[in-house]
Amino acid sequence: MKKNVALVTGHANQALAEKISAKLGVALLDEEIVQFKDGEIQAYYNETIRGKHVFIIQPTFSPAENILELLILIDAAKRASAKEIIAVVPYFGYSRQDRKDRPRTSIGAKLMANLLTAAGINRLITMDLHADQIQGFFEVPVDHLYASTVFLPYIRNLKWDNLCIVSPDTGGTKRASTYAKHLACDFAIGFKQREKANEVATLQIIGSVKDKNVILLDDIMDTGGTLCKAADRVKELGANKVYAMCTHALLSGNAMEKLEASSIDKIIVTDTIPLKRPSDKFEVLTISAVVADVIKSVVEHTSIAPHFEIGNI
User: Fold this and answer.
1) Distance between CA atoms of 290 and 126, rounded to whole angstroms?
2) Weakest mean pLDDT among 146-150, 165-169, 189-193
3) Does domain 2-146+288-308 have CATH number 3.40.50.2020?
4) Catalytic amino acids?
């Protein structure tokens, strides 16, 4: 396998790439990514990748240079005669822009799919897309992985009685109900109303959380406003412990400070996005083993179905 595979990383999440490299026993490729004084980016591969399966590991969270860096690394691999180019995008940026929710607006997720395809990818590996239908935006295979692969074992190891999975908003109803089914526990749904983007005006809980140990479950943690309000509300309703569990820790602005000061007892995230700084309230679970297994399956043409047995939510 080592002879046929090249692992590449941009600057967005080098720590995750190093973990995946260690799991596979394949060294990261010697490369250079140069940014000129005017901001332009250029990529060089210092080793041959002719005829190889090239996996480029780069989540596309802000700043936009992360997206451009990924596109340029793809283009360089295509021009270096790679056999196959696979974009490993643990966090797929612009995934919340998956439809026209008002007239004359963009669909950013489709644009990102078009850019990656035009750049030359043959496959995409990603995790917990904000909307499953984004897979259909691509004309190449998409391996859509689920953080439940690492979250569910963590929850089971807590061995909590009176467990209740709570979705902070109605969009996560399917996710919460599926977790509850696997864990044989109750679930509840948050119903929120916004006055403007990124600001929650009111939040109500549908379902009983009294005397329950609650896990607030979401895919993206951005400003932290929804989670803070949901935690306050479930505690008002008589919940005991309250943990939050989110795949992608964007943590925009002062979100980390806001969450640290919140009524949430602990926050569990994955390393799809690097945590801005260490925090006693945050615990990071790595997805490196899951991604490494899928990379191995892609190269060896074996099934990745086992990853969906507890994760297809």
Assistant:
1) 11
2) 189-193
3) yes
4) 192
